């Protein structure tokens, strides 16, 4: 009985922790959209939009892909001004737009992932002390998503 009580308590702690963590969409302009991870059933990405649905298939939020600056997981109401976010994380991804390479500096984590706008994984790379230079010249022109730990950066390949 004691073991069952401990497991149930741990489950409630995990659920409470999830309820405080959110998927946060930072638009190019305006206020961020935050949805508690515990409420999210799935995320659907189309060529034009990103949709966040509940477990009951209710639309929680929608954002036009072209209007998204960053997507991250974390606590809501973190700095919403992009200059504050950049200074808080000190992670830099440049140049954007790019033609042949992306430079990543001061990133957290060990790997970086590049996805096309439809969510297909195209490339992975290892970070050395949080830094890397990625060759993106084989990619066709278009918009891509770069996943760094829990931060997603959209970049354009010309």
- Determine Rg (CA atoms, Å): 18 Å
Mean pLDDT: 76
The CATH topology of the largest domain is given as: SH3 type barrels
Shape descriptor reads globular
Poorly predicted tracts of residues? 1-19, 79-88
Alpha plus pi helix count: 2
Supply the CATH class of the largest domain.
Mainly Beta
Order of helices and strands: HEEEEEEHEEEEEEE
Relative strand content: over 45%
> Class by helix and strand content?
alpha+beta
CATH architecture heading of the largest domain: Roll
Work out the count of structural domains: 2
Largest sheet: 7 strands, antiparallel
Number of strands: 13
Portion in helices: 10-25%
Strand order of the largest sheet: 2-1-6-13-12-9-10
Distance between the termini: 62 Å
Describe the protein's architecture and organization.
With 158 residues, the protein is an alpha+beta fold. It folds into two domains: 1-78, Roll (SH3 type barrels), CATH 2.30.30; 90-158, Sandwich (Immunoglobulin-like), CATH 2.60.40. 17% of the residues lie in helices and 46% in strands. The strands form three sheets. A seven-stranded antiparallel sheet has the order 2-1-6-13-12-9-10. It has a three-stranded antiparallel sheet with strand order 3-4-5, with no helix packed on it. Strands 7-8-11 form a three-stranded antiparallel sheet, with no helix packed on it. A hairpin with a 3-residue loop joins strand 3 (40-45) and strand 4. The longest helix has 19 residues, at 2-20. It is globular. Residues 1-19 and 79-88 have low confidence and may be disordered.
């Amino acid at each position: 009985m004691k073991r069952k009580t401990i497991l149930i308590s741990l489950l409630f702690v995990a659920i409470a922790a999830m309820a405080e963590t959110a998927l946060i969409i930072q638009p190019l302009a305006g206020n961020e959209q935050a949805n508690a991870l515990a409420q999210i059933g799935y995320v659907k990405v189309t060529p034009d939009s990103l949709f966040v649905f509940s477990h009951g298939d209710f639309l929680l939020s929608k954002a036009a892909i072209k209007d998204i600056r960053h997507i991250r997981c974390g606590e809501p109401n973190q700095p919403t001004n992009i200059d504050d976010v950049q200074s808080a994380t000190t992670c830099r991804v440049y140049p954007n737009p790019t033609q042949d390479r992306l430079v990543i500096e001061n990133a957290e984590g060990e790997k970086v992932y590049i996805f096309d706008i439809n969510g297909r994984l195209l490339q992975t790379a290892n970070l050395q002390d949080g830094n890397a230079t990625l060759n993106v010249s084989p990619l066709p022109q278009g918009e891509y998503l770069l996943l760094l730990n829990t931060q997603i950066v959209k970049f354009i390949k010309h």
